């Protein structure tokens, strides 16, 4: 008996240890390759140059165009997902019947299970032609349609997490609002949403983090042209797309070009790391506002 | 001289799905008086209280038969706006439930949702309501502080001030002092005594002494039935029904 317990305990410990070890090694690989990259290209150049052309003869190593591309698609995605996701969350909480809610919520989460490559093709072959019908200057590859489709993809993330946050608001607050003669709309926006704001904020941050790291949709639909612009109608490139592009190409292992993907990956990692920690911090700080 | 009845229930039955929660209740409540509902847990007194501002509307499977009249008007009639009704019939809950906003914003919440923006009106109403709820002196210097920082007793008086700010004519209180310490509880009772000069108050309480102290009339509920309804003094000195007698003397419940 005792030995069995020991074995189980060590297996559990091992699986936890492996996970941590893998994380540490990923960070280690990212760091060590990035250090090699930054020994050849200065951090100042990396952060201030306005072009990203490491694969061309005239090499420029400014990460800003990739950051701009990532920023642009992410902003568009959140602009789509936040209003829709929050509306769904409020609808499910304040208006929908309890039984309807139990059916519709899992159904919504199906959106999150669609492979991102499918979303990518949807953006390229459906959304872009549709948008082109009333935005004449829209390029075949563009940040707009990739961003919109990415937004659709993260709707369930925002709606689901925000819904959880709103339903965690004590019933007594809702009763207080109704008891004062609030309409459902006033209760939702005047009391429930503000009271759940920290949870909603966390859902948005996690959604941003997801959008920043999203690869397939932008690789397929947004183009592969690093460009320092906030114009959503032209092809751009995100950090993730660049990494895919180089990884699939024939860049020699160990070259400076090869190391650019680690520098780009490191940048991505820093962003998502900050965002995830921010959400963790907000959760912890505001969670226990009501006993 | 008998005052006119403010609230009236006529042949009221209430159901939660198949459960028959209230059985043909007939009551008329006097204006500017305190009526207490007493009875053991699950007897329907809170359900009954909540029919007066239709707070049960949101519970799945809840329905009523019969009528509730406010100033002679059926509040379950089709043309009644529930949010308008609740501006007339305010409510204070068992557990203090201030909004996670400042003290000031809590008190003026009811005015804000009515679209009142005039700073002067808001400030005047805030002070007046807080004074009426006997909490002005304790909070006047920290109106912009969070209401959640107040003690439980203060929060409850703040909730009363919040209810008063929209000038209802009836205030429903669902065990308003049961979550409070004895001193806070005594303050709430004093407050109820003051408020009945201007408001019709209906209070649910588990505390027999409290019912005896604050109310003019008492209704005793048992298993969904209104067993006895009389002047509080009469009921506590010479109850008609043996169940009432057993309950108020503490033999069950």
TrEMBL record, chain A:
This is Phosphate transport system permease protein. Belongs to the binding-protein-dependent transport system permease family. CysTW subfamily. It is a multi-pass membrane protein. It holds the Pfam family BPD_transp_1. Keywords: Cell membrane, Membrane, Phosphate transport, Transmembrane, Transmembrane helix, Transport. InterPro entries: MetI-like, MetI-like_sf, Phosphate_PstC. PROSITE patterns: ABC_TM1 (PS50928). It is found in: Cell membrane. Its main location: membrane. The chain crosses the membrane at residues 12-31, 63-89, 110-131, 143-166, 187-208, 261-282. Part of the binding-protein-dependent transport system for phosphate; probably responsible for the translocation of the substrate across the membrane. Residues 67-279 form the ABC transmembrane type-1 domain. Gene3D superfamilies: MetI-like.
UniProtKB/TrEMBL annotation, chain B:
Keywords: ATP-binding, Nucleotide-binding, Phosphate transport, Transport. The keyword Nucleotide-binding applies. GO terms for molecular function: ATP binding. It comes from the Bacteria. Pfam families: ABC_tran. SUPFAM superfamilies: P-loop containing nucleoside triphosphate hydrolases. Residues 7-248 form the ABC transporter domain. The keyword Metal-binding does not apply. Signal peptide: none annotated. This is Phosphate ABC transporter ATP-binding protein. It comes from Pontibacter aquaedesilientis.
């Amino acid at each position: 008996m005792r030995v069995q317990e020991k074995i189980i305990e060590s297996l559990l410990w091992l699986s936890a240890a492996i996970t941590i070890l893998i994380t540490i090694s990923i960070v280690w690989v990212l760091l060590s390759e990035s250090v090699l990259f930054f020994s050849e290209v200065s951090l100042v150049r990396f952060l201030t140059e306005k072009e990203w052309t490491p694969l061309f003869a005239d090499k420029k190593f400014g990460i800003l165009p990739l950051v701009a591309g990532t920023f642009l698609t992410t902003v568009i995605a959140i602009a789509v997902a936040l209003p829709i996701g929050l509306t769904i969350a409020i609808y499910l909480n304040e208006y929908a019947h309890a039984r309807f809610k139990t059916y519709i919520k899992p159904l919504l989460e199906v959106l999150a299970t669609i492979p991102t490559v499918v979303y990518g093709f949807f953006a390229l072959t459906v959304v872009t032609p549709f948008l082109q019908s009333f935005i004449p200057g829209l390029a075949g590859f563009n940040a707009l349609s990739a961003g919109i489709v990415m937004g659709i993809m993260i709707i369930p993330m925002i709606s689901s997490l925000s819904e959880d946050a709103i339903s965690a608001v004590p019933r007594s607050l809702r009763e207080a609002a109704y008891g004062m003669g609030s309409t459902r709309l006033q209760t939702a926006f005047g009391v429930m949403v503000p009271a759940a704001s920290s949870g909603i904020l966390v859902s948005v941050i996690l959604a941003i983090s997801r959008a920043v790291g999203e690869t397939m949709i932008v690789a397929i639909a947004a183009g592969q042209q690093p460009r320092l612009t906030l114009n959503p109608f032209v092809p751009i490139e995100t950090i993730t797309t660049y990494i895919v592009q180089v990884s699939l190409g024939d860049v020699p292992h160990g070259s400076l070009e090869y190391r650019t993907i680690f520098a780009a990956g490191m940048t991505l990692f820093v962003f998502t790391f900050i965002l995830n920690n921010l959400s963790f911090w907000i959760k912890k700080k505001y969670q226990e506002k009501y006993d | 001289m008998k005052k006119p009845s403010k609230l009236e229930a006529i042949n009221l039955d209430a159901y939660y799905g198949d459960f028959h929660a209230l059985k043909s209740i007939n009551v008329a409540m006097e204006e500017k008086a305190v009526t207490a509902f007493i009875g053991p847990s699950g007897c329907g007194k809170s359900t009954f209280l909540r029919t007066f501002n239709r707070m049960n509307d949101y519970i799945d499977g809840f329905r009523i038969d019969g009528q509730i009249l406010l100033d002679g008007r059926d509040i379950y009639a089709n043309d009644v706006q529930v949010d308008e009704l609740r501006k007339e019939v305010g409510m204070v809950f068992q557990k203090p439930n201030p909004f996670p906003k400042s003290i000031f914003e809590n008190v003026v919440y009811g005015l804000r949702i009515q679209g009142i923006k005039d700073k002067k009106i808001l400030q005047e109403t805030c002070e007046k309501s807080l004074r009426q709820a006997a909490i002005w002196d304790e909070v006047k210097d920290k109106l912009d502080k969070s209401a959640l920082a107040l003690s439980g007793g203060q929060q409850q008086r703040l909730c009363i001030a919040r209810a008063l700010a929209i000038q209802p004519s009836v205030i429903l209180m669902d065990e308003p002092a049961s979550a409070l310490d004895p001193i806070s509880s005594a303050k709430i009772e004093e407050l109820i005594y003051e408020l009945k000069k201007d408001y019709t108050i209906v209070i649910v309480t588990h505390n027999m002494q409290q019912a005896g102290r604050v109310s003019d009339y008492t209704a005793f509920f048992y298993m969904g039935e209104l067993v006895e309804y009389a002047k509080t003094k009469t009921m506590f000195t010479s109850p008609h029904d043996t169940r009432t007698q057993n309950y108020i003397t503490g033999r069950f419940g």
